[in-house]
Amino acid sequence: QQQVKQSPQSLIVQKGGISIINCAYENTAFDYFPWYQQFPGKGPALLIAIRPDVSEKKEGRFTISFNKSAKQFSLHIMDSQPGDSATYFCAATAGGTSYGKLTFGQGTILTVHP
Amino acid sequence: DADVTQTPRNRITKTGKRIMLECSQTKGHDRMYWYRQDPGLGLRLIYYSFDVKDINKGEISDGYSVSRQAQAKFSLSLESAIPNQTALYFCATTSGTLGGYTFGSGTRLTVV
Lengths: 114, 112
What we know:
The structure holds two protein chains of two kinds. By secondary structure, chain A is mostly beta strands. Chain A is built from no helices and eleven strands. In chain B, 0% of the residues lie in helices and 58% in strands. In chain B, the strands form two sheets. In chain B, strands 2, 4, 5, 6, 9, 10 and 11 form a seven-stranded mixed beta sheet that branches. Chain B has a four-stranded antiparallel beta sheet with strand order 1-3-8-7, with no helix packed on it. The interface between A and B is medium-sized, with 24 and 26 residues.
């Protein structure tokens, strides 16, 4: 059972455009929602994360929007650059400030054309 | 040196063979994890360990076993490899606070 569903599976964006990746979760106990970025040949790396007590978090060109009632959250990449081309994973976990295991979405392969 | 080191980076093995994937970390964290990555399926948890004496099954533990030899070392074994275990395997560690996981660079395993 996939507890975190991610879409789209792949995304192609022109340089300067906005990339949007969506995730939906089922487990209402989840209370921490990170996004990971993975380049070819590398392991995933933490990009940005949000707690459900806020509806939006922004770090540079990356923004997470969170809708607790809909159990959905999304990653927006503004002014997308070719260097943003990577695989992105949303994830979720429960446990307050001491979380144990992450449940990941299926991943989105983002390609940004120059 | 990398914070999380996985060996080997690539491995081709035959069906029925036993194989061990190794992971070591220099972060000093207690929590370690093994994930498997398949296209379209994301990362799925195989096993995890919160300290040397604590081992827990993840969502896809069948066909795998682990050993936590020390705080810094966590190995994954395939007792009798089968082709559908062909995948990219990642080891990760975390302190358990909201600092995120640190992943290794992965082991690409092919079972023929």
